[in-house]
Every structure is written in C-alpha cells, then in structure tokens.
Amino acid sequence: MASIEATEARRAAAFVAPALLWVLAFFIIPFAVMIGVSFARLEGRTVVYGLSFDNYLRFFTEPSLFKGLTISLEITVVVTVISVLLAYPLAWIIAMRVPARYQRLALMLAVLPFWTSYVVRSYAWLLVLGQNGVINKALLALGAIAEPLEIASTRSATIIGFVHFFVMLLTLTIYSNLIQLSPNYARAAADLGASAFATFRHVILPLTLPGVVTGAFLTFVLCIGDYITPQILGGNNELTLPQLIMLQLGRRGDFPMASAMSIILMVVVTLAYFASARWLKLDRV
Amino acid sequence: MGRIIAWAYMALIYGFIFLPVGVLVLFSFQGGRLPVPPFNGPSLKWYGQVLGDRGLMTALGNSFLVAVVSSAVALLLGFLAAHALARHRLPGSVLMRGLLIAPMTVSYLIIALGLLSVFNGVGLRPSLLATGIGHVVINLPLCFAILYAAMGDQQKNAERAARDLGASEARILWLISAPMLMAPMLAAFFLSVTFSWDEFIIAFLLTRFDVTLPVEIWSMLRSGLSPKTNAIGSLVFLVSVSLLIVLEFTVFRKRTP
C-alpha cells in the first residue's frame, strides 16, 4: 500500500514539476535578479553591482521621481472611487431591475468594449476628447463653448480612460456579488419595517462589500501599474510611476533605477493588499 | 419615478461605455485623412490600406502565433499541475499553489522588466520566443486557477473507476479527465489567447524586429491620428466579438441551463 502511495506521489510531483519550474525560471528568478539589480548602480553606461541604496535614496529625494508616485496614487485613488460609484448602481440595476432572462445580455453589452484592444481603446478616447475631437466639435456646434476644451493630454483624460475600463470590470464583479444575495434578506428587512434606503444601507451594502473591495483592489492594482493609458491620454506634463520606469529604461538604459522603482511599485500594491485583505475574496472573482 | 431614473442612468452609462468604440468604428469609414468630425464617408479605403500593409499583417500573424502557442503551453502546464494538486496530497501543496498563482499579483511591467534583465544576462535576444515565454508566465496562473477550481469529485470517481479497470495514467488523463473538463479547458484557453493577443508591455519590451499587433499599433500612434488605426482597431474588435459570440453559443451555453 505504502509503495503505491509513494509511486502516486512521485507521479503527482512529476506533473506539478513543469509548471513550477516555469514559474521558478521565468518569474521567481527574474524577480530575484530584479531585486539584486535594484541595489546596483549605473556609472556612465555600465551597471556596477553591489549593495547600494542610491537608487532608493534618489527616488525619495529627487522630486521629479517621487512626484511620479504621488501622481500615480492620486490618479489611482480618484479612478477607483469614481469607478465604484458609477459601477455599483449599474450592477444593481442589472441585477434587480432588468428581467432575469435579459440580465446576461445586459451584462455582455456592458462589457462589450472590453473586446477592443487595450491600446486601441485609449486611442479611441483621444478621438473623443482631442482638440478636434467629437466632444469639442459637438460643444462648439451647440455654441456651449467658444474655444475647444483642453481635455486630451491632461490628467482628466487619463482618468476618463481608466474609469471607462474599470466601470466595466467593476460592474462584473459587483453584479456577480449582488446576484448571489437571496431576495429574502431584503424581504426580511422590509417586513421589519426598514425603508428601502435603510435596507440598502444596513443589509445589501454590507453583504456586497467583499465584492466591492475585491473589485476596487483589482482596479487599484491594474490602474497603478498601467503604462498605456497615461502614456496615450495623459500627455507629457505629469508622468506616472510606470511612465517614469519606462523612461529610465528607454532613454537612459538605467536598469538599476527602473528596477528600484518597480520594487517600490510592488511595495505600494502589497500595502494596498494588506489594507483591504480583511474583505478580499480573490478566489471568488 | 425610480424606474425612470434607473433606465436613464443605465442609458447614460451605456452611452459612456460605447462612446469611444462607436467613434472608433464610425471614423474607420472616414473618407478624409483625419478620424475626427465632420464625417465624410463612408469609405472602405482605410480597410484596404490595412489589408495591404505588410508590417501590420506580419504583426497580426505574429500575435496569433504567440497567443495560440503560449496559451497551449500554459494550458498544458496548468492542467497537469491542477490535476496533481487536486488529486494527490503532496507535501508543501499550499506553497506550490501559492507559487503558481503568484505571477497574477504582479504587474506585467514588473514581469517584463525581470525577464528582460535575465534574458539580457543569458543572451536571449528580444524575440517572439521571449515574448511567448512571458505570456506563459502571465497565463499559467489563470489556467491553473480555472482548472483547479473545476476539478470536482465527479471526475475523481470516474478516474478511479478507470484506474480500477486497469487504464494507464496517461490514458486516464487523455480519455477521462481532459474530456470531462472540456468546458473549463476551452474557457481557460480562450481567456489566455485573449490576454496574450492584447498584451502590450511584455511584447513591447521583449520584441525588437518581429513585433506583435499591439506593438505595431503603438508605433502607428506615433505618427498621429489616422483612420487607418481606426480600421485595424475595428477589425480586431470585430474578430474578438465574433469569437465571443461563437463561444457563447457553443462552450458556455452548456453551463447555464
């Protein structure tokens, strides 16, 4: 008996091994190398390895670099809050007001633009928000404005592009949470004399909070690490952390600084995880 | 009253969601040189230009190749690992599950940067192979998680019966486990294809000459707004949505009675 179990265990180990080796070789080791590189220094064009905290010190003392972090955080927080506030009512309407047989269709429509390429979606916002874009042309034609609005190449454009993407994502996660709620909760609350608002505030909202926090956490992580949307829509006035990382790589070939900034980005995400861990249910997304 | 507000809100948000895609598709039929109002069309000339563009078509082929191959590898590795971890009690299985899921929690930029450092070190040049390796890293956790969650007792019993009847482990996997998990396997595969197909930053950092479609579109953006970009974007959208509709009526139909 023991030998059969031993063979089975060995076979199982052989099945897990390829996946584990892949993760080890192409994720864990690169990550470890990156940590190592973040403590190296760039002298001229060559990377000098060692245990130097220069990159980290420079990041926190050089305003042009540190500002990237604060800008990223500001944008991410604003995007997360607006997206949740817009997506929750939509998910609620689809789950509660739309007839059950049309809910799947309504949801698929709500996320349809997901299926355009991410790069193209940011570009499409450029067509809407640009100087000669649809919104400016429409407002000018209506006489609502005399001069075209400067929306593209500003922080607002970045935020609009992000909110567009994350409203879709959050609608999905919040909907899947709402639909699992038994209608009996609301009925019980109503029987006990709660108003519609009180029912929502004290019953529905607390029960859906895990779904909201999970979606918000995903939004936070994806938003703060994204390079494409700010690069296409945000212009060059204020650079986010991922844009600064790409700048270190591209223009200067400064791998150590780019690595250090990536580690800082990861630390921020980890902190966000611990801040929301109490409500997170990542396995249920 | 509440009803009207609800429908109005829904219309408003749907309008917001569809605005950029509508503009994108509309101005892909633009007659003039700029994809902004006024609309003077419809014209198919930009679609003609897209189809006649060697660089774009090569990039399209590259993207397709990387997406299919890397997703197949991720699916195979994920399936084997999920099967082993769901069926057998292995020492350290919690740690192994954690390791397999870990890449999901890290931004693509960081994965790309780490791979770039390592590939530079071992002399693997930026290429489709390098990009494909990176795409397996991002899709393996997804395939593993989907399949691990899908492996239930029902399959376990069928596998046990086959084993009692003398089937070899390979035959069990091929004839029992894989067919019973067809729907989640297809779901995992097509999700991976979608992610790989649309992935930009890894492909951007890890390719140089054989670029993928998102990278090629990116370089088109540098020369400013053009209805040609609208046309390729609309084509990608059309293909993805067709794929989605086919999946909806084949794979996913069975799961929702």
Explain what this protein looks like in three dimensions.
The complex is a heterodimer of chains A (about 280) and B (about 260). Chain A is an all-alpha fold and about 280 residues long. Chain A is about 75% helix and about 0% strand. In chain A, helix 1 packs across helix 12 (about 255-275). The mean pLDDT of chain A is about 85. Chain A has a two-stranded antiparallel sheet. Chain A is globular. Chain B has helices spanning about 1-25, 45-50, 55-85, 95-100, 110-120, 130-150, 155-165, 170-180, 180-200, 200-205, 215-220, 225-250. Chain B is globular, with a radius of gyration of 23 Å. In chain B, about 45% of the residues are buried. The interface between A and B is large, with 78 and 79 residues.
- Mean pLDDT of chain B equals 87
User: Which value, in Å, is the CA radius of gyration of chain B?
Assistant: 23 Å
Gap between N and C termini of chain A: 40 Å
The run of helices and strands of chain B is HHHHHHHHHHHH
State the helical fraction of chain B: over 70%
Class computed from helices, strands and strand pairing of chain A: mainly alpha
Strand order of the largest sheet of chain A: 1-2
Largest sheet of chain A: 2 strands, antiparallel
Shape of chain B: globular
Q: How many helices of chain A?
A: 12
On the 0 to 100 scale, the average pLDDT of chain A is: 87
Quaternary structure classification: heterodimer
